[in-house]
Amino acid sequence: MTNAAHWIEPHPHGIYIKPADAWIDPAKPVSRALVTHGHADHARGGHEKVWATPETLAIMGLRYGTNSGQPVHYGDGFEIGGVKISYHSAGHVLGSAQILMEYQGERVVATGDYKRRSDPTCPPFEVVPCDIFITEATFGLPVFKHPNTAVEIEKLLTAKSANPDRCILVGAYALGKAQRIIGELRKAGYMDPIYLHGALEKMCHLYQELGFDLGEIRPVMDTEKEVMRGQIILAPPSALNDRWSRRLPEPITAMASGWMRVRQRARQRNVELPLIVSDHADWDELTRTIKEVSPSETWVTHGREDALVHWCELNQMKARALEMVGREEEDD
């Protein structure tokens, strides 16, 4: 165990801030929870007190039925047990935040999940200098280099134009990815209706309530099969090959995920049109972020921890793997 930040303890089920008696993204109910974002591997119900961005609290209310919490806007600070805490944009999904903690002259940033690419549905990542940087490593191998998002969206639109009698069925995670794909399509000038699996509707409507214009979105359930020929349909990845998809007109199965870089994963899911669109930083972005933050020490969690720790050591940077568990919910 390093002597740095002795007041913070990594545990398999969360990061404990000792003087504040609070946890970051705890996997089980606690008295005080600081939540980075609304994905189920970081947020859950049952906490006595929750601090999160207003958007994350709204998402938690929708997904987990929580109806209370202390909203924290980006840049705002508060104090618990002598620890000064502030939230800063992580660029991962709507409401996602890095948590900066300052105590006895030491600055620690817990990123949760983050990305460096632009996203029309959430603010960009903010570089926050610190002494200890706690980073994810979902795509922490050099092979993971995400292509330009606009190029992947153009692949989707090209496939649609080339197949006017079929639909394009895109697997996209319900929180963040689905809304981003819609936003990227609108950014590319695509203004036709976009059809949604029922599991995506409530979250998309919440984004609209929170001020994001997703254009015209329609439920698949209320639409005749023939109307959906030549259209784009979004569904959770689990629905791509189940009975639900049989009601669609000759779907071309697509999947929007950073894992589509791995051909075997695309084949396993019977994906005809892999779209490499990720809500996590790729290898180059992970390493660039560490350089820009310039911490004295980097703590690496949930992902390819060993490779990123090794890169830090090769670059004369102190690092350690936290070996936390339970961070596999997102089908990114």
Automatic annotation (TrEMBL):
Record domain Metallo-beta-lactamase: where: 11-173
EC number(s) stated in the UniProt entry for this protein: 3.1.-.-
GO MF, any single term: exonuclease activity
SUPFAM superfamilies: Metallo-hydrolase/oxidoreductase
Keywords from the UniProt entry: Exonuclease, Hydrolase, Ligase, Nuclease
Enzyme category, top tier: hydrolase
N-terminal signal peptide: none
Domain of life: Bacteria
NCBIfam families in alphabetical order: Xnuc_lig_assoc (TIGR04122)
Protein name: Ligase-associated DNA damage response exonuclease
Organism expressing this protein natively: Parasphingorhabdus cellanae
